Amino acid sequence: MKKVLSAAFSMMVLATPVLAETGAREDSSNVLVWAFLGICGLIIFLQMVPVATLAFGLIKGVFSKKEAMEDELETATSKYR
């Protein structure tokens, strides 16, 4: 057990300089990165719009009254005869 703790402690001591990053590398691509992520978010949002409308229609159909659905169906079928 003592060897395991000693090994863990030595790994933490050796890994400490890795965590001390100075930030020497700096690039100016922040605007491009945020623009790319914004476009990706917009694409995902636009893909979710039809899903939301279908889910809303499904929930509305499940919880609506049966008589109202029969009236709508009768109106729709007689409209196109």
From TrEMBL:
Q: Which UniProt keywords apply?
A: Membrane, Signal, Transmembrane, Transmembrane helix
Which residues span the membrane? 36-59
UniProt keyword Membrane, yes or no: yes
**Could you say which residues form the signal peptide?**
1-20
| Name of the molecule in the record | Ammonium transporter
